[in-house]
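Q: What does the assembly look like in three dimensions?
Context provided by user:
Components: two
Sequences:
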Amino acid sequence: MIRNLTARLVIILLIAAVAIWIDASEQFTIRNPIDQTILYQRDVSPRLGLDLRGGLQVLMEADLPENAAISAEAMEVARTIVENRTNALGVAENSIQVAGDRRIVGEFPGLQDTDAVLKTIQQTGLLEFIDTGTVSLPEGTEVLTDYSPTGEPAPAPTPGPDGTTPTVYHTIMTGADLKSVTVVPAELGGTYQIAFTLTEQGAQVFGAHTAANVGKFLTIVLDKKVISSPKIESAITQGEGVITGNFTSEQANAFAVQLRYGSLPIPLKIVETRIIGPTLGEDSLRKSLIAGLVGMTIVILFMGLYYRLPGIVADVSILFYAAVAFALFKWIPVTLTLPGIAGFLLSTGSALDANILIFERIKEELRSGRTLEQAIDLGWVRARSSIFDSNIATVITSLILFWFGSSFGATIVKGFSLTLMLGVAISLFTAIFVTRSLLAWVLKLFRPKNLEFWFGI
Amino acid sequence: MNLLGKRYLFFAVSLLVIVPGLLVLAFGGLPLALDFTGGSLLEVNFAEGQKPQPAEIIAIYNEIGIKDTQVQTTDTGHLVIRSTFLDDPLREQVLSTMEAKFGVKPTVIRFDSVGPTIGAQVTSRAALAVAVAALVVVAYITITFRGVANSFRYGVCAILAMVHDVAVVFSVAGLGALFLGWEMDSLFLTALLTVIGFSVQDKIVVFDRIRENSNILRRLDFETLVNHSVVQTLQRSINTQLMTVEFLLLALALFGGVTLQEFSVLMLVGLFSGTYSSIFIAAPVLVVWEKQEWKTWFKRDKAESAA
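A: Here is the predicted structure of the complete assembly.
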């Protein structure tokens, strides 16, 4: 019948153990058994979609003519900027993704203040170089400046509650005067610096200021927030200069992106907004969990009653399937949405179909007078082609759906097809490998005499 | 059991299910939701006893200059307001005007707003996705069934039966729109695409048996061979689709949230149709094709009308 049965059972047990471990924990941690240091760690808390916990989903589209070429790089930069801006609001677990070639989807689960986020996304960033004299301001400090886009003088600052008037810094120039920004390797090995060139007008202003203020600080602010506060080492009169600092490659690139695109490289407009109230989400989650449990219970009872011994074995492997699928969803991680759960339930149906195909085949072979061993072997061999061919067709369809979902930011379709695809893949493994090995093992331990009863012929 | 002998009866049954709903859609138009047409939906809840009349809401919208406003009350007592696309400032204006007029701040349960161009694009891209999927599936079946004669026919029959299932889903959606006010939203699309996937999966299981039997039972005529294969897979078809998949979906339809009910009912019907059409459409059409029965259709009609 089956060779290496012990090895197969050990593999099944190991996979089940790991899956249950992941299912039961929020953090997956492997420690070194000797000194307890952490060797590997991964967050495996379950991710619930907006429809299950409430939140805001925004679809943004490049506000450019339909046929305008938009580079993937520019979209990525726009995405980063939107992400940075919304992160600054302290919104947890938000996800900003590029969808297709001209859209960005932002998802903010469990969000209460939707207005603030929508406003933040739509603002345009303002990059300013301000004179902070002998003070170097730490990154992230909020400041006031005297720059006003209309050219009118900014209103005088009002004294704060403690009676002191906040300092208004003088803006020397804005990001509009930056001509180019590049990242170049520094002389000090392994670090990077940022080289920039200025417009003609910028060069004059900048030259005059730096010549008069060597040794003082020139602070760079984006949307009135300090992003860097370099010291003026020498006068920059030729319109070309460098910002040094022990930047790593990533830091330097991120900084350059902010300098280059203080404002979004592509104008974005909001083309779709969805707000799901938290109570609606909770309600849906509770109801679909009940539905899932009811459905699963009926199915497990049916399999056991109809197919008897193999049915009970199939029930065990369906539970194995569910544990592995859920662990995988947590590991990847797959955000669970209502359609995602529906996709998972359907792939469970597909897992059962594979078992049913095999068992019906075994019954047929038993009826035509074969021995139990022959019937089981033939059942698997003969059912294999229909299981494979039909499941591959489902995988093809879900791939096409996935493509459709991701290029349109249609997260509903994406979630559904992803869980369906993963589910079908795991179901193939459980039917072909797990059910078969478990059945062989059970039959080895216990040799049923009354085949009609135990196999429900 | 001779299932295939009554094939024209089964074709008639299918038409009986498909035609009424499609007629509703043909005359009433597709009840497309804002996912496809663009527009906005605002679901709000007011404290008990402070619920404004729909007309008052429509008046607010008109005042702001938003057109095509419709207000519905859900069974949970929420107000669902549909209108043309609202951007964020407009939505805020609507909410603040409501607060000013009615003296209470409404709770936003749900807000969906889709720009008009994006809706149109989703529709066309979805149609494209279905067409691509159908073509890929025909190609896939033709390749996997290359061992049997006329393997191309199996692909075409699977797609014909799939079109049947899609028509059934549309028909039920049409009837649902007429009697229950259903709308075709992106979940409808998801349901439709799943029905397509599973329809094909089910056809392949039945065809696989025909493929296997055609190698063993060479001497049988094609109709008997197909009938035999269908009967052999019948128990499996019933158990898989009607028991497992339908159990799970029935649970979803009965206990799942409101959001999923329409979706589950459509899936339930669509997947049932997927199994039905494997046995009563796909396999019989293979036989009709093999025997080239259309040549006799006309003659039989004549004979019947003479009698």
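Follow-up: Confidence is low (pLDDT under 50) at residues 302-307 of chain B.
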